[in-house]
Design a protein that fits this description.
Length: about 250
């Protein structure tokens, strides 16, 4: 019997496409009420249509902005009065750039979204989470092993794992769990390899033992598992969703 998320509220960042959208749709099918944000409001509206009739709040939010995040959380509480689960999925995927050619602007863009964004959301929701609540953050296989010419992206994803493990220790005594998913080669619209197409996609397909790309829905299944009772003793875990990755420099997620 599938888990039920009736009367549960899930806050999801980066819900306009890919893994964030797939997770919203999955949770909606299980009865959750949703608070969804993204920088692209049109994409959010498309996500909402695919979530059916469940209560849904949509908000245009840049997670790197403390003010916008706090306003989103405030509106979520005004609509639902509580928050049960948080999925920090908003992020910027990498561009391969040698470090000596990396600009301050590129550093700021990735760090402010991928790392500071998770900090902003997590800090903002903590006062409103109760025992039984949970947080799932999206890292990457690039947060576990380095990739040449992706130093900034890897820094954010390694850092996110460290941040999450600290939150697991800090919030665990309050009954609030924090876990991480680390996707590999996933077929999402923002995956740099998918955008390039051709040989880049072939390299990704051949880059894992299953010989195919993963889907956003397969990642969403793991996120929902981490929110559910079946994972109630998992805290500070990092789950690699990569099909059995091989050593490769191909872009992940």
């Amino acid at each position: 019997m599938p888990p039920s998320f009736d009367n549960k509220v899930a806050l999801i960042t980066g819900a306009g496409s890919g893994i964030g959208r797939a997770t919203a749709i999955k949770l909606a099918s299980l009865g959750a009420s949703l608070a969804l944000c993204d920088i692209n409001y049109d994409n959010l509206e498309s996500t909402k249509k695919q979530c059916g009739s469940v209560p849904t709040l949509l908000e245009d939010v840049d997670v790197s902005s403390k003010q916008e995040v706090e306003q989103f959380i405030k509106k979520t509480l005004e609509k639902y009065s509580h928050i049960d689960h948080v999925f920090n999925c908003a992020g910027v995927n990498p561009t391969s750039i040698p470090l000596e050619e990396t600009t301050d602007e590129y550093w700021d863009k990735l760090v402010n979204t991928n790392l500071k964004g998770v900090f902003n959301v997590t800090r903002g929701v903590i006062p409103h989470l109760k025992s039984g609540s949970s947080v799932v953050n999206v890292s990457s296989i690039s947060g576990i092993r380095g990739s040449a010419q992706q130093a900034v992206y890897c820094t954010t994803k390694f850092g996110l794992i460290g941040f999450s493990k600290c939150m697991a220790l800090e919030l665990g005594p309050r009954g609030i769990r924090t876990n991480v998913v680390a996707p590999g080669y996933i077929d999402t619209p923002t995956n740099a390899g998918i955008v390039k197409g051709g040989e880049a996609v072939t390299r990704m397909i051949n880059g894992n033992a299953l010989g195919r790309l993963g889907t956003a829905e397969e990642v969403a299944d793991v996120v929902v598992f981490l929110f559910g009772e079946e994972s109630r003793y998992m805290n500070g875990a990092v789950l690699e969703i990569d099909g059995g990755i091989k050593m490769s420099s191909t872009t992940a997620k």
